[in-house]
């Protein structure tokens, strides 16, 4: 069968590897669902998401005409995915007393050179 990008098809999981799952689309055609295309978010182990013999619905996301390899995605069929991350408030890492610029760098350069010389001397002893 001739599969086109964007086509939604049903297939049967025939094998699971650490990098993805092989899916039989028909008697002659097989595709791969890469681990990153199984679902949104992080997937540590594909065996937690899929089982060999399971019937799944996938979308064709790439067809290599030369090698005849078909890339499939389950993630593309998911809708309304929202992530709830707890973002830590970033601390302001910039010293407000120091105004950034080349003059600040020129002022600090002799001190940095001295520190580097001391560090080098300490490493050599």
TrEMBL record:
Pfam families for this protein: S1
One cellular component term from this protein's GO annotations in UniProt: cytoplasm
GO biological process: translation
Sequence ranges assigned to domain S1 motif in this UniProt record: 6-75
Gene3D superfamilies the UniProt entry points to: Nucleic acid-binding proteins
MF-aspect GO terms: mRNA binding; structural constituent of ribosome
InterPro entries, A to Z: NA-bd_OB-fold (IPR012340), Ribos_protein_bS1-like (IPR050437), S1_domain (IPR003029)
Protein name stated in the entry: General stress protein 13
Protein species of origin: Carnobacterium divergens DSM 20623
Phylogenetic lineage: Bacteria, Bacillati, Bacillota, Bacilli, Lactobacillales
